[in-house]
Amino acid sequence: MSVSLVKPSLAELRLLIGATSQTPRPRQPFSLYPAGFFLGSFVELSGSQRTEFAALFLKENPQLSVAWIEETISINPYALKQKGVCVESILFIEGKKDILWSLNQVLSSGCFQVVVAENSGFNEKDFRRFQLLSEKTLNHFFLLSPSPSTSWVPHLQLHVRKSDTQWDIETRRMRGLG
Amino acid sequence: MGYRNSAYAGAGVKVVCICLPKHGDARSLAEIFYQATPQIQLRHNEAVFLEISKCQHLYSAATFLKRVQVTLNRIGLTARIGMAEDIPTALAMTLHPVAEKKFLPIDCLPCYCDPLGQYPEHTPLISKAIHVLRSLRIYTIKDFLDIPAGEITLRFGPSLLLAHQRLQGEHPLIWNIFEPRQIVQEDHEFDLTYPPRDLEPVYFILRPLLEKIFLRLRGKGRRMRQFKIILQQEYATQKTPQSYEVHIAIPLPFVSLKTIFQITKEKLDASVQKKPLEHAIVQLSLVVTEDGPYMTSQKDIFDQKKEETSESFFHLVSRLATKLGPESVFFAHLKESYLPEKNWLRATDKCHPDIQSTAVPERPLRLFKKPLPISIQSCHFSYNRKTYEIREWRHPEVLLSNWWEIAGGERIYTKLITHNGDQFWVFKNRDVYYLHGVFE
């Protein structure tokens, strides 16, 4: 009597364990990144025009409530207004030495649809926490880093530059739904 | 200014009397009901009288009594409540509850002689007179009123004549203006036999105290913006003072008491963890240091999720402001000004901008609090331990700043573009270059 091994397909195995099907999440449109950013995305922005890139995303999506967190506030709201951003819907937070705590509170609160933060030397563990929180509360989390981190955690790492009016957007890393 | 209640007697005047237990704070309670009526009278710390006849269009007497009961439950106070047409009768009916005024016992005569407790020296004479009345088998007010008024002074003294007249609706009391206290503070002294050494017993007391402060301020149409908690320790040491103070900030309106309590608890826990208490706590005090207008909002029964979101938003902002300081959590209020450091302000509340479109040239997205002096030598400058090579100088702009400030006077701004594509905003002032922002 011969025994024949039946190799089930991945879809069949998924069904056996009751795994949910991976449905694409809704994406927020953005002219500079036509694929858009999906809800709950963690996007790391680096490059010389990273803040302007984030500001343009806010300009194109004025209906979103925004939290802008920095260790010491250096963002200029007046310049944001000049870029066409609806500044009235932005809550600015100066985290000082408690920036990590502030960021955790803001991300876990679910009160904001967009959270923009400056990278203040966060480590891998912090990144992982930000990713889980932003996925849980379905908000866009933009981390502005002077140089791209080596972490695998962000869904998307974009390096943005601008020469006169020409944008140069380079995707350094993309993970998952990206 | 005041009015005589006799003018309103028989015209539906309603006076509610709240008799407090011993050591009650009648003034605080009166402040809580200040929003219901400004006509308030106090009998030391024993009773509060509220004249509610003018509020009949807002709520009925029965509803008001229920509201009073609910409010007293919220602040954890047990009190007796009564209602009548005038102050003495309201007091008498509260102390001796009977169906009708005429069935009141003669023991309530002090309520008519001195309802506000202004003449304690008359009390022995009144007690003596009541004793005599009893010996004459006069037990109720009905019997007392049968005595002709002309005989009362001779037999029982002028105090009982006053009571007799008040029972017949004469000699009404004047309602004085009630003024709430400016400083809103609540204290609780712990049992000195077993003073608490940790925060758990403090939280049990804190909740009703917060509730009381919240209601007192609401009575005045105000709300807390900042308050401090003072934990009085048993002894002071050389290192630490006797008072342990914790400051709480509630910058946004519509924060529920539950949220305020949670924030307070978190802050207290964090403070004590950082700087532990050294001795037992003998007293807990709550002092409001800053208040703001109380804004009422209609409950949105069609969009409850929106309300929940707003509540969680206010909760978050309050928590952040308490931890980081009220200045660190803000909305930007934009102003039109040529000076880059003066065209926005930190505001605690959302505000619509004064400006819609701007005539000011482009400003950098990153602006430093203080301009950093830099040296530019042969098209090179250093910033943040990096050297940049200048490719282009663009958009010169001359601004005049206040001469007494850092880098005051004339500032010649220029946009520097480096070979890497970085753009900096630099100005020259008295032959010194300053880096003021980055077009990031």
Main features:
heterodimer, A: 178 residues, alpha/beta, Rossmann fold, seven-stranded mixed beta sheet, two-stranded antiparallel sheet, 5 helices, 26% strand, B: 440 residues, alpha+beta, Alpha-Beta Plaits, Dna Ligase, domain 1, 3 domains, six-stranded antiparallel beta sheet, four-stranded antiparallel beta sheet, 16 strands, 30% helix, elongated, disordered N terminus
> What is the helical fraction of chain A, as a range of percent?
25-40%
Uncertain ranges of chain B: 1-10
CATH topology assignment of the largest domain in chain B = Alpha-Beta Plaits
Largest beta sheet: strand ordering of chain B: 11-16-15-14-13-12
Number of strands of chain A: 9
Sequence stretches where pLDDT stays below 50 over 5 or more residues of chain A: none
Q: Distance between the terminal alpha carbons of chain A, to the nearest Å?
A: 50 Å
Element-by-element helix/strand order of chain A: HEEEHEHEHEHEEE
Q: How would you name the CATH homologous superfamily of chain A?
A: P-loop containing nucleotide triphosphate hydrolases
How many distinct domains of chain B?
3
CATH uppermost class of the largest domain in chain B: Alpha Beta
Find the biggest chain interface.
Answer: A-B, 37 and 43 residues
Structural class of chain A: alpha/beta
Tell me what the CATH architecture of the largest domain in chain B is.
Answer: 2-Layer Sandwich
Specify the structural class of chain B. Answer: alpha+beta
Query: What gross morphology of chain B would you assign?
Result: elongated
Task: Give the oligomeric state.
Answer: heterodimer
**Mass-distribution shape of chain A:** elongated
Q: Which CATH C-level class of chain A is it?
A: Alpha Beta
CATH superfamily of the largest domain in chain B: Reverse transcriptase/Diguanylate cyclase domain
Proportion of helical residues of chain B: 25-40%
